[in-house]
Every structure is written in C-alpha cells, then in structure tokens.
C-alpha cells in the first residue's frame, strides 16, 4: 500500500517535480504538466518548421514574415506554458532582449536591400549563386534571403516584445492574486 494521500481532482495534473518547472511561476497551481510537456516537445519542432518556411520562401509560399510569425507562435506557446521566465527567453541558456532582436533584423534587412546599390544595381536587386555540396547536390542561394532573414528576426523581436509588455501585467496580477490568497 502507498502512504500517499489522494490528490484532489482539481490538482491531478499539477506538476510535482522541479524538472517540469523551468522558471518562477507566481501561482504554481495554474501550470499543468500536459501543457508544459506539449510545449517542450512542440517548441523545437515549430522553430524548425519556421526556419523551413524562411528558407523555402523564394520557391514556394513562405519567407521571412510567415516564418517569423510561426516562430513567434512557438514563443507564445512557451510563454503560456511557462510564464514570463520561459516566454521572454530563448531556451533557458541566454536572454535575448526583443529591442536588440528587432534592431538587428531591421539592420540586416535594410543593409541587404541597399547593398546592390553599392555595386551599381537597383535597390532590392537580387543575385543568385549556385554551388555544389557533396552528398546534397546543387544548392542555389539567393541574396534576397538576407532580407527575409532580417524580416524573420524583426517579427520574432516584435512578438517577444509584445509578450514582454502584455504579459508583464498578467504576471503582476497573478502575483497580487497569490499574495491576497496567502492573506494578511
């Protein structure tokens, strides 16, 4: 027989171990194991799909904007599952400030759009380079991919900034509600 007491029905899926709690959550009972497990599984998969959309955008539907939106949705899922500490960070290894990401994306897009003018071509002109990679075959690289990479970074930065600004109020309200429940 087990010495464990029965778990109330409302708490059956509440995470028990620290391994499922990547960050500080103001109200621990608001987190579910299923959502956290799904977010941890889907996050890298959705990011890989967003990079696929980014790269394939020159020959099929996709590009920097839809790829950035899909990557942004991955961060929204991560934010919903883990709160502020998960959503505003890429993984848990390093923090990327959204304004820096937006600035970098804008810089990459503008410089790559204006670069052809330095060589006497019109602005936004595109060049194509083909080269062979062993075991893969011929790879065509289009210079306008740099513009899409800039847009991709810009959109991810905007989504992370929205999560940071809109989510901070939600986090604050949850902390205040948890403080009121603790009582004076």
TrEMBL record:
InterPro entries: CPA3_antiporter_subunitB (IPR050622), MnhB (IPR007182). The keyword Membrane applies. It comes from the Bacteria. Pfam families: MnhB. Keywords: Cell membrane, Membrane, Transmembrane, Transmembrane helix. Residues 34-160 form the Na+/H+ antiporter MnhB subunit-related protein domain. GO terms for cellular component: plasma membrane. It is found in: Cell membrane. The chain crosses the membrane at residues 37-57, 63-81, 101-121, 141-163. It is a multi-pass membrane protein. Belongs to the CPA3 antiporters (TC 2.A.63) subunit B family. This is Na+/H+ antiporter MnhB subunit-related protein domain-containing protein. It comes from Pseudonocardia halophobica.
């Amino acid at each position: 027989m087990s010495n464990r007491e029965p778990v109330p029905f409302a708490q059956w899926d509440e995470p028990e171990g620290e391994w499922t709690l990547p960050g500080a959550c103001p109200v621990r009972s608001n987190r579910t194991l299923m959502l956290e497990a799904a977010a941890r599984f889907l996050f890298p998969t959705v990011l890989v799909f967003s990079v696929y959309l980014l790269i394939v955008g020159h020959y099929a539907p996709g590009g920097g904007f839809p790829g950035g939106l899909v990557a942004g949705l991955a961060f929204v899922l991560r934010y919903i599952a883990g709160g502020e500490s998960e959503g505003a960070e890429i993984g848990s290894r390093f923090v990327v400030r959204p304004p820096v990401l937006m600035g970098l994306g804008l810089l990459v897009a503008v410089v790559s759009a204006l670069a052809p003018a330095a060589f006497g071509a019109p602005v936004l002109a595109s060049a194509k380079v083909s080269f062979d990679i062993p075991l893969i075959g011929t790879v065509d690289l289009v210079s306008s991919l740099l513009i899409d990479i800039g847009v991709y970074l810009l959109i991810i930065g905007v989504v992370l900034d929205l999560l940071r600004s809109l989510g901070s109020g939600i986090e604050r309200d949850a902390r205040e509600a948890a403080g009121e429940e603790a009582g004076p």
